[in-house]
Amino acid sequence: MLWRLTECLAYLLLACVVWWLMSMGFWGKLALLVLGSVALVVALYYYFQLMSMPWDEWDEMHDDDK
Question: pTM score, two decimals?
Answer without folding.
Answer: 0.62
